[in-house]
Amino acid sequence: MLTNYVGVLFLFIFALILPALMITLSKIIAPSNPSAEKSSTYECGIEPLGDANTPQSMHFYVIAILFVIFDVETLFLFPWAISYDLLGIFGLIEMIIFIVILLVGFIYAWKKGALDWVS
Amino acid sequence: MLAYIWLIPLFPLLAFLANGFFGRKFIKHNAHAVSIVAILGSALFSTVAFIAVVRGATLHHNVYTWVFAGEFQASIGFQVDALTATMLMIVSIVATCVHIYSIGYMHGDDSYYRYFTYLSLFCFSMYMLVLANNYLMLYVFWEGVGLCSYLLIGFWFTNPAPPAAGKKAFLANRVGDFGFGLGVMMIFATLGTLDYSTVMANVPLISTSTATLITLLLFLGATGKSAQIPLYVWLPDAGEGPTPCSALIHAATMVTAGLYMIARSSALFNAAPFTLTLIATIGAMTALMAASIALVMKDIKKVLMYSTISQLGYMFLGLGSGNYTSGIFHLMTHAFFKALLFLGAGSVIHGMSGERNMFVMGGLKKHMPTTWWTMFAACVAIAGIPPFSGFWSKDEILASAFKSGNYIPWAMGCIAAFMTAFYMFRLLFLTFYGESRVDEHHMHHLHESPATMTRPMIFLAILALISGGVGISWPLENGFIHKFLGSVLANQHHGSLPVTLEFGLMGFSVLIAVAGILVAYLMYIKKSVSPEKVAGAMGPFYKLALNKYYVDEVYNFIFIRGLVLGGGKFLWDFDAIVLDGIVNGIRHLTIFIGNFSWNFDIWIVDGIVNGVREVILFVSYLSALVDGNIVDGLVNAVADGIGYLGKGYRKVQTGFVQNYMLIMALGFFVIIGAYFVIL
Amino acid sequence: MANLLPSVQDILLLTPEIIILLSGLLILLITPFVEPKYQRITPSLAIAGSLLAFIASQSLGAGHRVILNGMISVSLYSAFFQNIFLIVNFLVVLLSLTYLEEEFANMGEYYAMLMFATLGMMLMAASSDLLSIFLALELMSVSLYILAGYFRRHSESNEAAIKYYLTGVLASAFMLYGISLIYGITGTTNLRAVGDFIGVSGSLARDPALGMAMLMLVMGFGFKIAAVPFHMWLPDVYEGSPTCVTAFMSVGPKAAGFAAVLRVFYVGLGSLRLEWTVIFAILSVLTMTTGNLLALTQKSVKRMLAYSSIAHAGYAILGLTVAGTALEGAGMSSLLFYMFSYLFMNVGAFAVLILLRKKALTSESLDDFNGLAQRAPFLAFLMAILLLSLTGLPPTVGFVGKFYVFGAVIQVALTGNGFYGLLAVIAVVNAAISAFYYLRLLMNIYLKDGAETLTWRYSHSLMFVIVFSALATLYFGIFPGSILSLAQQSVKILL
User: Fold this and answer.
1) What backbone torsions phi and psi does residue A33 show, to the nearest 5 degrees?
2) Range of the domain at C367
């Protein structure tokens, strides 16, 4: 049985060797004359001002996550709408349950002030 | 007919609950009343049951089935037969005496109620142990009496020594119980039942090898509980507990549980001749070794503790010779005279305000007359002077060892008998005779103990003198106890010896005993032989015995060296908590092992330590060679892996989540690798 | 198409799960609307929910129904585990009450998450399809990640949550990979169908891809049940989480993991049993030995209990190894009973830790328990029962559980399988090692003197949990018969 996977093994070995080979070759072949200017982040751009890691408002994340949740909800609604006539009353009930559960979360988030941009 | 049998353990249980729950707040210094009423009730019913059994009644009754699964049924049930009845009587008599004695001895102790609580719990467990009708229940209460023993050894836990002794007892017993538990499991696995009668009936179905394995495991349990080589080390230290409880637990009852268990399984042990021979050998070795240590001890309780170990060795010799009755017979006589000796020692210690060194006593005879004569009675009984109890039982054990062909154990037993007579009378002479070596301070307080203490001693003294009567008969070994126990114990019969030889042996053992007493007399009363000179002449043997054969130290040694080799720091911590005297151990060890140990250290231990270091260095060197960001982490992990063998396992728990994930992944790849290699 | 639709009877079989779901949702819904002083309404709802679900679960009957297109199988087996989860849920809600109030963290979200985690565990025990198992597992895990980090102002708690989450995701990824491989090979995720497929094509059993899939599932579940070497997260997470969450985590998810493992490996991968019994046997030896040896070195009681829970998982895995032999029934029922026995003693021990503590997440060291018996004899007595049970001494339920698991292993050994004999010996040695650290704590409680270093946080609900656990430990230790036969009945549906 294991012989069936010899191809996978070769692919695996090849995948290991190829990038190693490429990196090594470029290291050997390419000329390397680093200078202070070349090593800087933006060799031909503007020097960055300040730290890029500035704190973001927590609300940004909360709203982003809420957006994703309701986005996914819509994603579920499309196929459901297409096959509505096949699923019938059961599909309707099932989707209502799904939406109600999300609604509970939505009410919770709203009441907790997750949607107020300024608090 | 014996339907009331459950009342016997019930009384102490109720007393335990009452004292346990209400002792501290309400009962306080009346705790003894509760416990004594309970033990008297138990003793009464035990006597009634004993008489019923003598008349031929037996009981085998399952009270409640503790169902496990399908075929396996463990039950709570009682079995009463001759062996149980005998044990019931021994426990009841000694326990009653000890209870009453404790009123005086423990008077004024802060934890008076706690003492009686434990005592009642012990009695309950002990009764249940002997009343059980299956191995599982035996195991449960085997642990139960063990628990009480640890509690009572560590009773005065504010001093450092008692808890340490308790821990030691716990450890030694754990090793034994491990074997015992495995043995019980093996019985079940082989026969599918744990019920005594069914097991015994099915013994023929077991192959000799299985029977040998089972009995060896059971015997390992017995060596722990009944203090035999190699697990006896806990018993000498057990003297740290209150003296009356030493009399009850560590002389008369609990330590005999191992013997009881073997006698109970006599049919099973008969199927394993190898185990029996081993039991006889271990018994004789223990008897001799412990007796030789007892020769040189200065602490009065230590002498008695080693004496107990030695006497238990005799009993095992009896069992191992296939004469189970003789073992139980000696168990009974020993219970009486050794309990008495402990109570007497307690009385002396009580009078001497806690002093235990016999060399600062002397001449107590006139101050403590009752203690003196009761202890004298016990001494003649244990030394084996006819017609007192110890003579009959000990002689029978030696005779059966001889008959069953165990000549070397027999010879060892004879030597031990000489030593027994010597050290008992040495104790007696040093304590009660000669010039008083008591200092002013103690002299002032010296007094005879109160009646609550002396009365139980008098009662036991009478028993110690006459209880051998149950085994006297003509022809020999046909007395009451032989007929009584013979019905339940599967004794092996090795035929009888010529009458002249029988009497010759008997005369020989009397001679030995008298010789022992005579030597003690010459050394400590007449002082015509100097003990120091004898000690000097014995040279290394004296030193060995004085240091208890360095057994504690050797055990410590094995433990510590195991640590160095294993390299785990954690065991070291653990060690510091559990074993006492490590520092002493190392010191004695150096003397004892001498150059050998030194060389061993340099060549082997250092070699291994250096080797491990070299390997680690080598791996680190390799890891320095193989550079690179990804490989580096891997090599570090491997180096860590080796490092933790040396430094302690827990170093792996770095707290870095990336390491955790790496280990998870590594674990996965190791499993994958192994899986496909094997596939 | 019609067979897609479940009947009302089928839905009714899920009553306990629905009750838990609804109570969780209700708690979440009303939480923002409840005044802080009426905050106790949410735990009351949680208690009511778990009790109702418990009653509903008793009335389901002993039938075995596969519903929702083979996703869920409702049977005695699922009911057995559901009862464990509901009891844990009930006890943990009671434990949490005062603990959280004192830490000013008594909020509805906590109870809602507890309910959702319980729901996930219940579904996990009832799932008979790899997909539903995975979904249920994630529902449980996500709720637990949040619970672990519930004390968000404590850095330890945050650390616990992050560690749990990161390692958990790794394990989930492996598991999902394994599931997808199995789907690729067999074309189905239904466990019975997977089992039948592999069983029919005999040569498939030695297919490397299937072996790979199996090992990935071993790793995924090994993480949940904290088998060494997938246990690394456990000590830190247990120590950093709020103690009540630790109590919950140490029992619930573990039992749920075992419920799923048993189904997946026994039903789905039954043809590979020769392979996985060996793997689990090795894991079990590693797990109990590591857990016990590390527990020995701990100074903090909470951490000691964490390591000891690893060791207990090791004993339970022993039952799993027996499930792959001819004595499958004994192995599986012993595992079920072990989980049941573990529930009371562990929750009880953590309850004592909550009752007696310093501050929220400060570790109580062994020495803090010195002389407890003099200050609080009754509590010390209860703790003694629980510790004896954890050690596995009679007459407690811990003894019965251990005895039953070890007994199953020994029975296999006696059929001539020396490998299992070795396992049994290692297990017994481990049980002996574990006695050292449990009884050391007991010695500290009874035999040492110590000053009061812990603060008493007495409350009726907490005391109720401790007394209840200790009594249950004793009761089921003396009368284990009913639960044992229930466990035996339960595993019949897998056979």
Assistant:
1) -125, 75
2) 282-495
